[in-house]
Amino acid sequence: MLENVRVVLVGTSHSGNIGSAARAMKTMGISDLCLVAPEAEIDGKSVALSAGASDVLGGTTIVSELSEAVSDCQLVIGASARSRTLDWPMVDGREAGVKLANEARDAKVAIVFGRENSGLNNAELQQCHFHVCVPANPEYSSLNLAMAVQLLCYEVRMAYLDLQNTHPEAAPEAYPHADDLERFYQHFEQSIADSGFIIKPHPGKVMEKIRRMFNRIRMEKQELNVMRGILTAFDKHISKPEK
Ligand code: SAH
């Protein structure tokens, strides 16, 4: 189950943090590490700080976009030092741990961490179902990256141990993977552009609101298929605006 939990580090700029994050993960039994467009390479400093966790570093995957890192994940939770960067569903660390452990029983899940200097940008935050913020000292709330990884992996582990001790609930409904949702949003945007509801170069905040709404609902796979079918049916009746 813990093998279904992926830690995603976006744009990390200190190689030592990559090593410390790997160590934090391994102590909690988590080993799937993915780097998105890292600014630092895995080097001697990473290996030194990973202590005995160089196997986690060795298995690291590197991709260029967050969407690639989470494409096969059913649940994506983004860690943010600021509690309300966007108006998005928020969970605390404990709730994040429970959600991740629960869904990792039969699907891939991811926790996403941002850059040391600027965190995650809005486009990245919008790819997450939930945001998690560790309610630290409001006057000094930004944790070191690897320490944030440690705290949240600990919460996943605690929730996982809890699940092992209790009777497992029914498996959660099958939710679509992030890449299926992304295709749905693109289809939706195209259809409402073709209908004339938005004008592609000036879409305003419509898609952000739509994403937020569907995030809140968390459609199941079957529901997503129905929505795609409805859009396709509507598409046939839309006369495309003149280019
Ligand atoms: N200066 C950045 C903070 C970067 S810290 C900013 O203002 O956003 C690097 C990463 O560690 C963050 O992007 C986040 O993923 C994680 N992190 C740090 N402090 C956190 C906190 N209090 N709660 C949740 N995640 C945190």
What this model shows, in words?
The longest helix has 21 residues. By secondary structure, the chain is of the alpha/beta class. The protein has two domains: 164 residues, Alpha/beta knot; 62 residues, Helicase, Ruva Protein, domain 3, CATH 1.10.8. The mean pLDDT is 91. The radius of gyration is 19 Å and the shape is globular. It contains ten helices and seven strands. The site of S-adenosyl-L-homocysteine has 20 residues, from helix 7. It comes from Agarivorans aestuarii. GO terms for molecular function: tRNA (cytidine(32)/uridine(32)-2'-O)-methyltransferase activity. Catalyzes the formation of 2'O-methylated cytidine (Cm32) or 2'O-methylated uridine (Um32) at position 32 in tRNA. Pfam families: SpoU_methylase. It is found in: Cytoplasm.
Say which CATH homologous superfamily of the largest domain is assigned: SPOUT methyltransferase, trefoil knot domain
Number of strands: 7
Rg: 19 Å
Question: Quick one: CATH class of the largest domain?
Answer: Alpha Beta
Number of helices: 10
Give the number of domains: 2
Small molecules in complex = S-adenosyl-L-homocysteine
How much strand content do the residues show? 5-15%
Q: Quick check: average pLDDT?
A: 91
Structural class: alpha/beta
Percent helix among the residues? Answer: 40-55%
Order of helices and strands: EHEHHEHEEHEHEHHHH
CATH architecture of the largest domain: 3-Layer(aba) Sandwich
Spatial order of strands in the largest sheet: 3-2-1-6-4-7-5
At the third CATH level, what is the topology name of the largest domain?
A: Alpha/beta knot
Distance between the termini: 50 Å
Shape: globular
In the predicted model, the low-confidence regions spanning at least 5 consecutive residues are none
Q: How can the largest sheet be summarized?
A: 7 strands, parallel
Function: Catalyzes the formation of 2'O-methylated cytidine (Cm32) or 2'O-methylated uridine (Um32) at position 32 in tRNA.
Catalytic activity: uridine(32) in tRNA + S-adenosyl-L-methionine = 2'-O-methyluridine(32) in tRNA + S-adenosyl-L-homocysteine + H(+); cytidine(32) in tRNA + S-adenosyl-L-methionine = 2'-O-methylcytidine(32) in tRNA + S-adenosyl-L-homocysteine + H(+)
Protein name: tRNA (cytidine/uridine-2'-O-)-methyltransferase TrmJ
InterPro entries: Alpha/beta_knot_MTases, RNA_MeTrfase_TrmJ/LasT, SpoU_MeTrfase, tRNA_m1G_MTases_N
